[in-house]
Amino acid sequence: MSPRQRCFACLDQNPPALLEAALWLAAEHDPALQPTETLAAFDELLHQVRTRLPVLPAAQLAMPLLRCLGDLDFHEDDSAPLRPQASLLHLVMRRRRGQPLALAIIALELAQRLDIPLQGVNFPGHFLVRVPGADHMLDPCSGRRLYTQDCRALLIRHFGSNRELHADNFTACDPPSMLQRMSRNLRHLHVQDDDYLAALKDAERVLLLGPPSVADHLARADIYQQLACPQAERFDVERALMLSEDGVTQLALGERLRRLGHAQPLH
């Protein structure tokens, strides 16, 4: 099987093998990657965490787990500009630096193996985790508790004061949705690196992992534009137009299609 097929097979397991799936995702970009080696390193991390956790009921161990990861030097990657290595899980494990989602996946896998209740939260701009039923979120990068006011401040930090906090910002995130978000992150980071062939792999995976969106089709259309593939670009613009419910966007997409109608395919 290809790395992508192995990734999807991991998601089909019960329960899903999230960490291994993320490693097979990374293997699409690094053919030399052997997930078994990183999984062995993870087993050692699991042993270190298990010996450091306090003796408390499982429901009270989520924050100590995250703080234990911090003590073991797992932190948010604050490099500028951020590079794809912040989201490729084998490199995050090796460097102990990564985006919040990558750190959350490591924490969620540890929690599952230690029977600690913990779930991912698809918060905009900064992935969060929480104990089911708790009145607060947890930052996977630090273990800090985040209440409503803290989450509002986090949203403003990423999107500005015009962005309002909504209940759907706290939606629980299942493994396919986490890997779809990771694929979006990588798509952005590879485009930022001018690596459009790598970004195309991520853009394709995004569309396979969940319902298609206007933004996702347009992101792939823009990549095809950079790769001088007008027919493929047209396909995604057409799909975006079909999905769009915004009149202004529909007009802009219609104009883009008219321009593409005169383009000659290069392939």
Low-confidence stretches: 263-267
The strand order across the widest sheet is 4-3-7
Distance between the termini: 28 Å
Work out the radius of gyration: 20 Å
Structural class: mainly alpha
Note the run of SSEs as H and E.
HHHHEHEHEEEEHEHHHHH
**Strand content of the residues, in percent?**
5-15%
Number of helices: 12
Gross geometry: globular
Number of strands: 7
How many domain modules? 2
Characterize the largest beta sheet: strand count, sense, and whether it forms a barrel: 3 strands, antiparallel
| Helical percentage | 55-70%
Q: Mean pLDDT, rounded to whole units? A: 95
Please characterize this protein's 3D structure.
The protein is built from 12 helices and 7 strands. By secondary structure, it is mainly alpha-helical. The chain has 2 domains: 171 residues, no CATH class; 50 residues. The strands form 3 sheets. The chain has a 3-stranded antiparallel β-sheet with strand order 4-3-7. A two-stranded parallel sheet has the order 1-2. Helix 1 packs antiparallel against helix 2, helix 10 runs antiparallel to helix 11 and helix 11 runs antiparallel to helix 12. The radius of gyration is 20 Å and the shape is globular. The chain starts with a helix and ends in a 7-residue tail after the last helix. The C terminus is likely disordered.
